[in-house]
């Protein structure tokens, strides 16, 4: 009996190890496709094809990055129980920020309300690429359900991971992760648009974050049809 239990333990360990070794990490998937993506985007921008350039980002995510796994990355905690991407245990939305990259006016209030409503099922993480003293000032704007973490590039040992996560696709990103760290979606957060009304600004952020939550393709007892689309249903 003891030998049989040992056999099944070793078999289980072997299968788990094999699955881990077969994982394609985000940094690997991005490295394989980044040069081709950048070339196509540069050519599109030179021709003034801005809509096509955006579609190239969507295609990169859908065809090459979805299904990869978030890289192991340690970060400093300001108000969070999570100190690494390896500690993720729930579906998670990671929003990346920097002090000089100003979010659209309605983004933080909408994010706060979403975190308050769905925080028991989904972890919301705001990741600052910045120094602690700067992050501490900015963190006061966020709901207590939101994990506030930061990576000081100068002090971080995972420079290749930081380079790819921060610099390759831009800073204003949203990563949607399954509980096992699989990347379900990546999107650029809504930009500032000076010609929008206050309601329009709020609505674009409500719609964006609702789509991010909807991208979590496991049963969280969230009725996707009841996710808000605008202020009228928020």
Automatic annotation (TrEMBL):
<keyword id="KW-0732">Signal</keyword>
<dbReference type="InterPro" id="IPR036249">
    <property type="entry name" value="Thioredoxin-like_sf"/>
</dbReference>
<dbReference type="GO" id="GO:0016853">
    <property type="term" value="F:isomerase activity"/>
</dbReference>
<protein>
    <submittedName>
        <fullName>Thiol-disulfide isomerase/thioredoxin</fullName>
    </submittedName>
</protein>
<feature type="signal peptide">
    <location>
        <begin position="1"/>
        <end position="17"/>
    </location>
</feature>
<keyword id="KW-0413">Isomerase</keyword>
